[in-house]
Write a structure and sequence with these properties.
Layout: H1 2-6, H2 11-29, H3 31-36, E1 50-51, E2 66-67, H4 70-91, H5 98-117, E3 124-125, E4 128-129, H6 130-155
Antiparallel strand pairs: 1-2, 3-4
Helix pairs in contact: 2-4, 2-5, 4-5, 5-6
Length: about 170
């Protein structure tokens, strides 16, 4: 933020440019959970089930050997979101932080789904994992921000001049 202010660089524009790379980095980083045998999901008999050693199985799940590989699901989700951000940014002419806000919204959507599969200990509020509630709140806030930003962007357009005015 300091460098953007010092060199008069548009921080939201930088955030938009970085968003696909950030989430792609998250996709790669999730493979650390595989090597650590952590953050896996509920037991499964699916062919791609992840075999977890006995020492890493949570209490109550010692008799199960294969679990949902939530790290893989999240990695695939994040890589897909990276591609979607690039496409949506061009298709809908997203700018001034809108691509970054879309990244936040899409990441939160994936987190809600992934968190529903997990069996590790977590704090609960109103019967939901805290991570789910946080993802819902942040996700809705980012969608609202995109909505308000797009609405403001459209009010800058005039009927006689259809190109947008840059701030």
């Amino acid at each position: 933020m300091y460098a953007c202010k010092k060199y008069k660089i548009n921080l939201p524009g930088i955030a938009d440019a970085l968003a696909p790379g950030i989430i792609l980095g998250q996709a790669i980083g999730r493979f650390g959970n595989y090597f650590n045998q952590e953050l896996f999901g509920s037991p499964t008999d699916l062919p791609w089930g992840l075999e977890i050693s006995y020492a890493h199985r949570p209490a109550g799940f010692e008799s199960f050997t294969t679990f949902h590989p939530t790290f893989l699901y999240e990695s695939i989700w994040c890589a897909s979101v990276a591609l979607f951000l690039i496409w949506a940014g061009k298709k809908f002419e997203l700018k001034n932080g809108q691509v970054f806000a879309l990244y936040i919204a899409m990441y939160c959507l994936g987190r809600v789904w992934i968190e529903a599969l997990r069996i590790d200990e977590a704090n609960h509020i109103l019967g939901l994992r805290l991570n789910v509630l946080t993802s819902l709140a942040v996700g809705f806030a980012s969608v609202f921000w995109i909505y308000r930003s797009r609405k403001a962007q459209n009010t800058l357009k005039t009927p006689e001049n259809t190109h947008e005015i840059d701030n």
